[in-house]
Amino acid sequence: MYKTRYCPQCGAQMYADMDVCYECMFRFSEHDMRVPDEAYADMETMGESPGHNVGERKLRMCTDAVDASVVVPEGGLLIGRGLTCDVMLHSPAVSRQHVRVEPTKTGVLLCDLGARNKTMVGEQKVEDTAHIALGESFCVCDATFTLCDTG
User: Fold this and answer.
1) Residue of 57, 60, 55 lying closest to 1 (CA atoms)
2) CA angle 114, 90, 136 (to 5 degrees)
3) What is the C-alpha to C-alpha distance for residues 78 and 17, in angstroms, rounded to an integer?
4) Could you tell me the pTM of the whole model?
5) Longest alpha-carbon distance in the chain
6) Which of 108, 121, 128, 146 is most buried, most CB within 10 Å of its CB?
7) CA distance 94 to 75
8) Mean pLDDT for the stretch of residues 141-145
């Protein structure tokens, strides 16, 4: 099993080798709370060991007005401003169907749906698809999504 620790700010449980709490964005290194060396002992690579059951994924969404999480279902989810989207963003800059998020064994796959204002992963525009690993973020206009594991 993986070694875990708890965030001193929000109490969320996380893997012991993580420097950032993805629930409240607390940075351990900024508070002189380094990752202990023993946290790396006996850790397997997530999603690659035989029989490892990959947990559900969730997206933490942050905007100026909202800070919320949504689970990525097995069938994926649709992000956009249209009424049929699983995650509706109320901005004219967001396309009606902007991007589709599909779970994979090692994260999620972003699928661009022809949006005018492209989804960004770092400084790169997503033209077709992009893989997002746990802990990584992507932006749909002014909304930032960070991929987390529900446990």
Assistant:
1) 55
2) 65
3) 32
4) 0.63
5) 49
6) 108
7) 22
8) 92
